[in-house]
Amino acid sequence: MQALTDHTIAVLNNMIEVQNDRLEGYEKALGMVEEHDDIKAMLSDGRSVSYYCREELRNAIVELGGNPVEGRTLPPGSYHSWAIIPSTASGHYRKSIFNVFEVGEHATQKAYEHAIKNNLLPDDIRKMLAKQKQRLQKQRRQVNQLHKTELKKEKAMTLSARENFLK
User: What would the pLDDT profile of 107-125 be if each residue is shown by its tens digit?
Assistant: First the structure.
């Protein structure tokens, strides 16, 4: 029984590391965003979701008698593509943020899928992880919609500039 508890704690700590990676990325991205940029609300929401998920994971670990991890111990390239947002000139960060968000969120979803499929986890833990995954998916859809809107605007501006050039 203790081995299963230890396994559950290890899985939950891994998910905390994923959330810590997301939080690090959101903080970095928020530092790049201009004060009145519409993307700031999206990033703030993402950060809030990560804080909530991380606290829920920590509470579950404590209930199991374990110690939640602090920081991130995953090796580079695991789940923290958010943490490698390139510093770009003002105004050009948006594309970088959207691109890195997609890569990072894809990795996050894969981590949740892997954890949820783990048949050694208790049902209540798997349900909690499934709810978190759904919450993250909802946020991902909202960001993707914002990105699509951004791409449409960019395309319209390019077409308009091309028409003006040809006049």
Answer: 889 999 999 999 999 999 9
